[in-house]
Amino acid sequence: MKWPIPLILILTTLCLSQAKSPKVTSKQIKDIYQQLKALPFDENKIIPIHNWVLKKDRAVFTFKQGTFYLSQPIFGKITGAVFLGKGQFQMTPPNEIERYQVRRYLKKDSLNEEFTLAYLRFTDDTAEQLVRKFNPISGQVDRKAENFHRDISKWLLEDLGFNLHSEILARLLNATMQTEFIAILKANKKKLNFSDYLIFNYDLEAFEEVALYQYAPKSAKKSFYTLCSFDRQEEIMHGDGTDEEKDIIKVTHYNLDLELKTNGKMQVKADIFYTPQRNDLNILSFELFKKFQVDSVMASGEPLLFFKEKKEKRVTICLKQPTRAQLKDSLTVFYSGKGLESANGTFFLKDKITWYPRYGYLQPATYLLNFKIPRGWQVVAVGKEVERRRNDKYIFSRWQEEVPSMGAAFAFGKYEVSSFKLNDSFPIKVYSAKGRSEGRRKRICGDVANSFFIFQSLLGFYPYPQLNVVETHNLTSYGYPGVLFMTWLSFTRELEGVMEALRGHEVAHQWWGNLVGWKTYHDQWLSEGIAEYLGAVVAQFLLDGDRIFYQILDGWRTDLLDKGHIGVSIGLRRFGFSKRDLAQSEGLEAGPVWLGRRLGDRHPVDYYLITYQKGAYIFHMLRTIMRDYETGSDARFWNMLADFIKKYKGKRVSTADFQKVVEDHMGKDMDWFFREWVYGTEVPLYTYSYQISKNGQQYWIELIIRQEKVSPQFKMYVPISVEFENGKKQSQLVLVDGVERSYHLGPYLQPPVKFIFNDFAGVLARVRSE
From the CB of residue 29, how many other CB atoms can be counted at a distance below 10 Å? Predict the structure, then answer.
């Protein structure tokens, strides 16, 4: 195969610095930044090299033979170098989940790649090591070094929105952040399957310090893939790391003043209130939509220096004084741009996450949003509208969210509105585009109200004062505190069971996702899986009971195990995807639920299939295992969910947190279940046969179950049921483990007329009878 672009690897390594932040002026910082961008090379620092080995956690870089060209010192520090010659990169991930992902992309467990060019950026002692070990000489710098610096800096910025220079700047000037080493390597062979670039990252400031990516510069399709990501060796050895606190600041509150215009432009003043977690920080970086232009940044009435390049996805801010840990502070960012997209007289955010400056991974914060909009228009946002006034030209609307939330959003348009009150006190409003029928809005309002009643009775406490439902022109829906942004499809058609489940899913996020958040991308399945499952429960309650519910479950099973159903294409099935929809899907082979967003790197639909559908089925299997089969009660399952909400409300949770609550309510270890279904990809094939025998007045069933397509230690509790002539039904769980197992079931006092294996669709499995 001909590869259009050479192989590249990026290595980032960080070491803790104990020095105090240097005192620098804004002019000095600006000069440093410009020098980092230019990276002039030093003609007196050319180093011939032979067999230098550099180890970073599980990665080994061997510079076999060639020449290093060092950059000139910047702020007293050499921060870059280029190597031309022969080198080798080797790495093997530490666990089977990550090795599986490398095999998924590269068809091999380990990497062993040769390179001929290495571009290095660092703030550690790499240059000093080179100078001590090898003797520099004077000479002419190869033009390849300068060209590669220019090209890779441009590619990273344009494709990924990543500013390499501001990254180095922060590590130079923030004394209590880790130093950084970056190596970009160009291979002399093109052996990778999907792109010509690999990015290896070793970052002690990251949630997972070691990561390997694929990168395809200037690709018209997705250009960035995660091959593997894991904790560094030291943390794995000591059994810690995933719960480490890495945030250097905590943002606690936002005041957002927004002027919204009918051409899609918005002008924003964002007051950010934060608490530093470390001393001596001079530089802070916030994620911000790449199409926004930052006009100015202020703190304590003084302007601050900032950097945000064109297409960059963050703004880097230079503080006047170094931070003091736990001393609260604030700053204000003024920015503008076309951040809204429109349809049917309504506007919604182009980027619902970084439309305002964000730090960290979904940090909970409170919000005050002040909108200025043209008369005749409406705005709906998170929280509650606490003030509204107007003049001849504008409406001023203030919304407040007092419960810490992982995010905020709004919609803006000319809406038609229907209202409904629960218990004469709790208001629900539905905002639709012009021309939608009153009946449709009332239908949506009814489904939302019923979902609210169901979940409040099952899950308990609801902290928000109202619930608004707003039509958006997206194909997807989103739930924020006190507001649901619902796809236009829900306002234009009714498909029995589908829309009830969709509306129930989004209402469920008021508890799962807003009231209780998720800690990392590995844990997002908790929010999406339970919301998907509760959506099916809503359809079960509102329609004809089990029929719709089990059709939804069968849709999930068919999508996951058979990659869709042809009946969806011709209108014979309403739940799930068609074969055509999933033609490119990897299905369960994309990886375990625990991989979260990474599941959709190659095919976005796989993220939905596994995070939503398999995640939902995991909750159904837990419900099946926790059921009292003598009474048919699911109280233990629902009590477990309510207890989880009560225990963790206002917090972000991990999969381990959820497992602990499940084990508390089960009264036994459930590690086997989470290992198989959350961290694993296997699905069993059960083949069963049975015979009914009579001994006196008693009846017995001799059952044989063979388990295939899973590892020898795989086990699962499978529900079986026996129906009798009088219409009664007796159910129980049987433990299936090993390759084959026999069961002597009974005695039954009446003759069985029907035997049901895997009743209640209790296990995600393939089943056949003999």
Answer: 20
